[in-house]
Design goal:
By secondary structure, the protein is an all-alpha fold. The chain is built from 4 helices and no strands.
């Protein structure tokens, strides 16, 4: 009387082998690389607005860390494409926040090199934001 169902139900649980799984460490690596790449983008933006040797060195360090975590060098833009002159204080605050996020992830995955780099960047951007805010 009824024809049997020949296809899988859309409500059936997926077979665990149907999609790739990542370990917690792999997920943290991806997250840390993302935070550091975002910090690198803001650092490059700062370098375009207010070039300095310290920011150049920081960008090089960030590039090395992102490359270590991803296995590929990050894509970078040599041109700052801001419609308006970005406010230096706001850029330093954004960089400080990104470095803080990177520090939290680096600490949770026990990555000493990335944690030290993130902490140094936090200190540098905090001090720079204070100097810009004082003017």
């Amino acid at each position: 009387m009824y024809e049997p169902i020949r296809t899988k139900s859309v409500h059936a649980m997926a077979d665990p082998g149907d999609f790739p799984h990542r370990s917690r460490e792999e997920e943290l690596d991806i997250q840390l690389a993302g935070h550091l790449a975002a910090l690198l983008a803001v650092t490059d933006e700062l370098r375009g607005v207010a070039p300095s040797a310290e920011l150049d060195a920081a960008a090089d360090e960030l590039t090395r860390e992102v490359t270590r975590l991803r296995g590929l060098a990050p894509v970078r833009s040599a041109v700052v494409s801001a419609i308006h002159e970005p406010h230096l204080g706001a850029l330093h605050q954004r960089a400080h926040a990104l470095a803080g996020r990177a520090l939290v992830v680096a600490a949770s995955r026990a990555d000493t090199a990335a944690a030290i780099l993130a902490a140094h960047r936090m200190d540098a951007h905090e001090g720079a934001a204070r100097l810009v805010g004082a003017h």
